């Protein structure tokens, strides 16, 4: 009996000792001690979700994810300088996908195709086809992970239009008419005159997308294969013509019904005006939708959204003139109106610096994958 007890005691001690020495290995995490520096825009809708998710990712993996926010105008030059000089202080970046070619061709960005192929958790085919192609792929390889998908649309005050018996605008002429109709009225009950239209027009920010969204309906009538920037046969820029001129006229006219400092307003400013109930119309990305239903919003239940307005006349590329739509010229027209929905900017996508340490690159990819997975992204799109 004594011997048995001694054997049992020895066995328990041995087992406890083994457990003691194996605990660190059991609880060690994949990326303990790894820090990933990710550059993006200093904005709550862009930087915010990553900052929110980084602590959860650390609990799962051990990785420290440091999100560095800078003004929009600084993202491209900071990436370019960091990569080109070999500083490589940036391990990953969440940026505009249409810039990626500028960083792929010099060899700065990691090919993520092998990682995506081996990653069942990301559910790659569940990501919208447009975004996993346009926003991610170049030369048959995957270089970015889409974290946000963007289309421009217009927003309107449903309460105002309903009370006036006016339908949402389907042409830019209707847009400017509605803007003029409500401009100067007190739309939020604070005793101050408000604005018919609020569109971001700040220089060196994101405002250049706005004029393109207006011009698209006048220039592109046969789908994305036709394009609106260049004549695909001659590569002549499609700017010196009646269509682009008309778009500029519309753009200028909206300023008549806008805040007096609209030329200096960034998208954050116009969104603030919208949620404060100070605008009848605006042109923006999907962010307005979630901001409008926030508990602090004064337009909760009063915000409608619609396809970008279009035109009954479109560019004749041979003459440079505006001509009336017909079935052949505008095959996608709705009730005779040509629309050109625009994936302005295209969203925000995460790319990885190929010069970073292998373990850091792996952690950066896993973080982008984690952000893109349905469990996280289905929540983040409502923020």
Shape category: globular
Helix content: 25-40%
In whole angstroms, how far apart are the ends?
A: 67 Å
Radius of gyration: 26 Å
Kindly name the structural category. Answer: alpha/beta
Low-pLDDT residue spans = 1-26
| CATH secondary-structure class of the largest domain | Alpha Beta
Architecture (CATH level 2) name of the largest domain:
3-Layer(aba) Sandwich
Share of residues in strands = 15-25%
Counted up, domains total 2
Determine the number of helices (DSSP H or I, runs of at least 4 residues).
Answer: 14
Characterization of this structure:
With 383 residues, this protein is an alpha/beta fold. It has 14 helices and 13 strands. It has two domains: 35-150 and 346-380, Periplasmic binding protein-like II (D-Maltodextrin-Binding Protein, domain 2); 153-324, 3-Layer(aba) Sandwich (D-Maltodextrin-Binding Protein, domain 2). Helix content is 39%, strand content 15%. Strands 2-1-3-13-6 form a five-stranded mixed β-sheet. Strand 11 and strand 12 form a beta hairpin. It is globular, with a radius of gyration of 26 Å. The termini are far apart.
Secondary structure elements and their pairing?
Blueprint: H1 2-27, E1 35-41, H2 47-61, E2 64-70, H3 72-84, E3 92-95, H4 100-104, H5 113-118, H6 129-133, E4 137-138, E5 141-142, E6 145-148, E7 153-157, H7 158-164, H8 172-182, E8 195-198, H9 208-219, H10 242-254, H11 267-275, E9 279-284, H12 287-292, E10 303-306, E11 313-316, E12 321-324, E13 348-352, H13 358-372, H14 374-380
Parallel strand pairs: 1-2, 1-3, 8-9
Antiparallel strand pairs: 3-13, 4-5, 6-13, 7-9, 7-10, 11-12
Protein name: ABC transporter substrate-binding protein
């Amino acid at each position: 009996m004594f011997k048995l007890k001694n054997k049992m005691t020895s066995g328990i001690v041995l087992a406890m000792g083994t457990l003691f020495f194996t605990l660190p290995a059991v609880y060690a995490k994949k990326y303990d001690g790894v820090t990933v520096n990710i550059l993006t825009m200093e904005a709550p809708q862009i930087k915010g979700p990553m900052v929110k998710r980084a602590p959860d990712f650390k609990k799962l993996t051990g990785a420290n994810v440091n999100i560095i926010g800078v003004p929009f105008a600084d993202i491209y030059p900071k990436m370019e300088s960091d990569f080109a000089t070999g500083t490589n202080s940036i391990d990953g970046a969440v940026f505009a996908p249409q810039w990626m070619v500028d960083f792929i061709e010099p060899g700065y960005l990691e090919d993520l195709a092998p990682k995506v192929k081996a990653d069942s958790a990301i559910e790659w085919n569940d990501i919208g086809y447009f975004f996993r192609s346009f926003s991610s792929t170049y030369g048959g390889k995957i270089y970015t992970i889409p974290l946000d998908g963007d289309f421009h649309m217009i927003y309107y005050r449903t309460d105002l239009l309903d009370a006036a018996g006016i339908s949402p605008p389907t042409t830019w002429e209707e847009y400017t008419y509605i803007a003029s109709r409500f401009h100067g009225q007190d739309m939020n009950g604070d005793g101050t005159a408000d604005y018919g239209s609020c569109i971001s027009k700040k220089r060196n920010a994101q405002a250049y997308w706005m004029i393109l969204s207006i011009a698209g309906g006048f220039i592109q009538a046969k789908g994305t294969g036709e394009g609106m920037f260049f004549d695909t046969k001659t590569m002549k820029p499609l700017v010196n013509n009646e269509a682009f001129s008309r778009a500029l006229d519309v753009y200028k006219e909206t300023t008549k019904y806008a805040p007096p400092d609209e030329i200096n307003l960034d998208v954050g400013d116009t969104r603030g005006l919208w949620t404060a109930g100070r605008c009848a119309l605006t042109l923006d990305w999907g962010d307005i939708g979630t901001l409008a239903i926030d508990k602090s919003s004064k337009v909760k239940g009063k915000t409608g959204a619609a396809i970008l307005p279009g035109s009954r006349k479109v560019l004749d590329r041979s003459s440079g003139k505006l001509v009336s739509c017909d079935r052949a010229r505008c095959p996608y027209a709705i009730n005779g109106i040509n629309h050109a929905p625009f994936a302005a900017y295209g969203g925000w996508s995460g790319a990885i610096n190929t010069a970073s340490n292998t373990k850091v690159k792996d952690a950066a990819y896993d973080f982008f994958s984690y952000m893109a997975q349905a469990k996280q992204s289905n929540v983040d799109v409502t923020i």
